[in-house]
Amino acid sequence: MHLSAILLHLTGATMLLLFAVHMVRTGMENAYGGSLRSMLGAARQGHCKAAAGGTAMAIVLQSSTAVAMLACGFAANGILGVSTGLALLLGADLGSALVVRVLSFDLGWLVPVCLLVGGVLHLKFSARKAREIGRMVLGVGFVLLSLRLIGTATAPLRDGAMLPSIANYLAEDYVTAFLVGALFTWLVHSSVAAILMVATFAGQGLVPLEAAVPLVLGANLGGGLIAFWLSRGMPPAAQRIPVGNLLFRAIASCAALALVETTALPIAALGYGPAGALVNVHVLFNAVLVLAGLPFITVMTRLTGRLLPAVEASTSDDPSQNRVTALDRSVIATPRLALASATRELLRMGEFVEVMVRPVMDLLRAGDSAEIGRVRDIDNAVNQAHTDIKLYLAEVNRGIMTTEEAARSIELTNFAINLEHAGDIVAKNLLVLAEERREKNCRFSSEGWAELIELHTQVVENMHLSLNVLISQDLPSARQLVLEKEKMREMARHTHDRHLRRLQSGTPESIETSGMHIEIARGLKEINSLLVTVAYPILTRSGDLLASRLANPNHS
């Protein structure tokens, strides 16, 4: 086989691997995004729990970078501290390494199973969660398939002279191998994919362990570079987490490289074959980094604080102060462009509401006055956006518009009103309950709290779907959103009935928080109902929405 054909096959297999890792991560975020955010919020209970939570999240997302970006988002909103975020990322890196360990096993038999099951779920089921689970299963199958294709594509290179020469050079120049591993990982934006490829090369006998170990250590440094690069435009509070993690990984990988090159460590004895030994080195490195890094979290927090000092109050993260409006007054005379501008601003308004809704359960559980106040202040940005959008659309309506454009303007105005109401429910109801719970120091029953968490998770997931419907105007997504409202109604009825049964049985926590439990459930249900309204105009136009829920609306 010619070299060009080998490179073509290898490049295609590599892109399939990157695409497959992305599929798994996207499917998990779409299906369980709210649960992941709740898990991240719960990780604030201590460094060890944060590290454990980061490990679990990285395993399900197959990416420590995805965990890092979630943590940065929470830190930017003032909900997650730097020290907790650093512990979270140390655990996430270990979780990512465990994913590599699992995927490196000989799982060839699993490829057709994953492709069959994932394909059926993704293509034949209409429920959004089932389709996203199918996407994840397909992604796992593609990962395993791509690794087989990489092995097949590189097999002819064993008989050539070029790759062995490069591998031998890297084996002698471990610094270059280390830098190549870091650069390659940053370029492909996936440490999982990079290390799986290096392990595959080592298993094929194309790269000796003397070169593969520095490549893997460099890949660990490159994994830290990815999150650092992606967060470069975020506020300092968010950037400190990936910067601190990068410093941890730089110090640890350089120390490990020096240890490997100056001592005769029995690397080959760590596994069955070069590939297994290499993956075990990767897992061991990250496990040691967690144990060694956790005691120095406070020191690293102070260091990142000095490297990235907080901005002054006048340039704070308050959305009402820093946001740039999407309402373009230069296109008011062109309704089509003006409506697009209003839609973008409405999306920003929805994102503000999401920032308010997302931490509600954390604030109800253990929020202090400062945290509650920060979230309540965001309601000012929501109210301002609501006013700006209404006035902007009113001015657009004074011009000449088609019937469709006029209808769209009304839809956008109505949804802006509903989003403003959702923000008020958080600020004037749920946050008031959070303050009341903190002052009285009362506790929810474990069963009741789990039910409220489930309701909140559903609301956050539906919020993402509603904002997607706002932009895409997609009919299947609109149908799914209304179906999710029915699911939410059943969940609210279920938690109400179970709560009453707990009151009848005399559960002390349920009696203590009875009014709060009912109010929280009602507030979350009402927020969800307001979000679903974005789907009604789409379903009305398609004829999928009934004019009345009555069995016989004309009966007198």
What's the topology here?
Blueprint: H1 3-42, H2 47-61, H3 64-76, H4 82-103, H5 110-124, H6 128-154, H7 162-172, H8 174-188, H9 191-203, H10 209-230, H11 236-262, H12 273-293, H13 297-307, H14 319-322, H15 335-357, H16 360-366, H17 369-397, H18 403-440, H19 446-472, H20 475-505, H21 508-512, H22 514-532, H23 536-542
Helix pairs in contact: 1-2, 1-3, 1-6, 1-19, 2-3, 2-4, 3-4, 3-10, 3-11, 4-9, 4-11, 4-12, 4-13, 5-6, 6-9, 7-10, 8-9, 8-10, 9-10, 9-12, 10-11, 10-12, 11-13, 15-17, 15-18, 15-19, 16-18, 17-18, 18-22, 19-20, 19-22, 20-22, 20-23
Summarize the structure in words.
With 556 residues, the chain is mainly α. The chain has two domains: 305 residues, no CATH class; 214 residues, Phosphate transport system protein phou homolog 2, domain 2 (Methane Monooxygenase Hydroxylase, Chain G, domain 1), CATH 1.20.58.220. The chain is 79% helix and 0% strand. α4 runs parallel beside α9, α15 runs antiparallel to α17 and α17 runs antiparallel to α18. The longest helix has 40 residues. The chain is globular, with a radius of gyration of 26 Å.
